[in-house]
Amino acid sequence: MRRARTSDDIVRRPPKVAGAFVTPFPPIASSQHEEPPATPSAPRPRTVPIRVWGSSFMGYRPTTMAHGVAVALLLQSVGAAAQQLDDVQVTANRLPQSQADVLASTTIIDRAEIERSQADSVIDLLQNRAGIEITQNGAPGTTTSLFMRGTESDHTLVLVDGVRINAATSGGASLEFLPVEAIQRIEIVRGPRAAAYGADAIGGVIQIFTRRGGEGTQAALSLRAGDQHTQKQNLFVSTGDAETRLNASLFRRDGDGFNTLASDTSGERDGFQRGGGQLGLSHRFGPHASLSLNALRQDTDADYDDCFPLNATAASNDCRTDGYLQTFGGRYDLALAPDWDMAITAGHFDERREERYAGERYSVTESHRNELGIQHSFTRANGVDTLGVDYRQEHVDFDSASPFAGRYAKDSRENYGLYGMLQREYGRHELSGSLRYDDDSRFGDETTGSAGYAYHLTPAQRLGVVYSTAFKAPNLIDLYGPYGSNPDLDAETSRNLEAFWAIEHDAWNARVTAFENRIDDLIAFDPAFVPYNVDRARIRGVELSGGWHSAGLSLRASLTHQNPEDRDSGERLKRRARTFGRVDADYALGDWRYGATLRAAGDRRDTRYIAPYGDTTVGGYGIVDLRTAWQVTPQVELSAKLDNAFDRDYTLIEGYNTQGRYVEAGVKLTL
Question: Where is each TonB-dependent receptor plug domain found (predicted)?
Fold first, then answer.
């Protein structure tokens, strides 16, 4: 198992709106604020056009516009997120849209939720949300795998400010390298999105936006300490005016961790340390053009167990990995006409991992990628059309001291992609379609597409259906890797059908999605560990998600029930639970906040790598995390959390330990 309806008379002079640039909707007479009643012959309008400076058009509900424009925090660009309204996302169709206007199943985690949760990592933020399961090989800093809607760990595309961070070698994303301290927002899109992004998005897309500042000068310093000698420091500063914004973050975390391997009885702990920084710059060149630049780097150094030093006759627990992940991105937005926007994007990604066994360097693997893209968006009276082209080049540097390791026969590849998307609204009917062609220099070409339809039962309720295809390009390690490869591999392909019902009210929302994803030509390995296309999978499931808020109470919940099945053997795919879910509850009372999170999952099939060898089953679990915070003064906040409050002993991967009860507290000073 491997690893918006728009107007032609839009005012073009952007005012200042809560730290973002917005071109206002033309003045509306008071009578225009009154919505006509919803009738079968004349359904109530759901959206009004809002012109977003430096991007495309957004669609909002009239009430959202009327109450939210004065406080809106929105995107400056797809690749560089500014603060925005909670229900606006850009990842599903590479355009800013209200979640109510997107047919895909989506989740947004904003900065306020990140801070309320006091999460240690992206893993904590994502674990057990609708459609998402994550495993980790022990203590913080060790390797993670993400399974979205039961697909493989390299079937989810992960972006940072629009830049891919899936490694060119294994195809997976190193979530353990991503710092929550530098994150403004996370957008999750479930289901295939290959027609928008090309390869790797069979299970879905996760996009992470780094932090941004607003007008004026801001600064925040956070200091925290916890069990296992854990320490955290984070500094965020920003300054800016109506035209130019600059922000920076510095962060560090280290600790003794816990013993990674369950079979290790020595009592040693696998410590870790990580640190890095993030930088963002944006500038507006008059009312029609903008430029945004961003950079992120994190260095990680972590201990782990069960490696094999050269000439050793047994496994060692003196294993260490260190390296870094860094991204650089830029976006230039230009409004060519009132209904025509162009965006030019560029990005660069590096990841480096060095493995040391018993103090000796064993291997070094580096993954590098460059990206360029041009996208045009054309606003119509009842929708938007998008045309784009992108280019991606990636290569691998590898060196190993092992006598069994070869070299990459070919260590680079290129991909050209051409895509088009359209969205239309006809009264109660909503249509969406996309088509994309990719040409990969190493395995050939692929054409993917999607089509969706939704019907508005009422202004608040929708029924819809979406069909989409996707593919996963073979990883370079499978095509030309040093330990066994097959240059004749075909792409893994999928066909996905899903249907949904969704409802959104002011205080609450809910969505039910039923899906079936059939994946062909999955890559498996023969007894000599040579990859080949043979496996087939069928993943059926139902997702339930929703939220409710009133006064100081906020509830968010999700539940996924699925059957990720190997179609040849009839067995469940390994490391996937049939049922898993999550509940987050937060309550604010005066200057105090209280919160709790329940994460639960059923049993999973796995492989036992120690005697007796073979297949096994790891049990289900239910974990409760508690948290509280006190706003002592407007500038000082004290907080504390208790993870795994009942000290449950549970397993994510057979043979590897997980975090027991953990206590942490800290102070945040804000200027």
Answer: 99-205
Q: How far apart are CA 343 and CA 341, in angstroms?
A: 7
Q: Considering all CA atoms of the chain, what is the largest pairwise distance in Å, rounded to the nearest integer?
A: 83
Q: What is the DSSP letter of 572?
A: B
Query: How many CB atoms within 10 Å of residue 287?
Result: 15
Q: Sign of the CA dihedral 409, 311, 653, 268?
A: negative
C-alpha–C-alpha distance, residues 622 and 637, integer Å: 30
Rounded CA Rg of the chain: 24
The C-alpha atoms of residue 333 and residue 284 are separated, in whole angstroms, by: 9
**Helix-then-strand count for the chain, H and E:** 5, 37
The predicted model scores a pTM of 0.87
Distance CA 280, CA 212 (A): 7
Residue type for position 421: M
Tell me how crowded residue 237 is: count the other CB atoms within 10 A of its CB. 16
CB 513 within 8 A of CB 105: yes
Tally of CB atoms within 10 A around 13: 9
462: helix, strand or coil: strand
Who contacts 640 (Cβ-Cβ below 8 Å, separation ≥6)? 627, 628, 629, 663, 664, 665, 666
State the burial class of residue 458 (Cβ atoms within 10 Å of its Cβ: 0-12, 13-18, 19+).
Answer: exposed
Residue 127 in tokens: 């674990």
Least confident of 30-39, 119-128, 463-472, 578-587: 30-39
The label of the residue with tokens 């230009």 reads: 334
Q: DSSP per residue over 365-383, as a string?
A: EEEEEEEEEEEEEEEETTE
Q: Is residue 330 classed exposed, middle or buried when 0-12, 13-18 and 19+ CB atoms within 10 A define those classes?
A: buried
> CA-to-CA distance for 214 and 22, rounded, in angstroms?
13
**361 DSSP β-pair partners:** 356
φ, ψ dihedrals at 233, nearest 5°: -135, 135
CB 46 within 8 A of CB 429: no
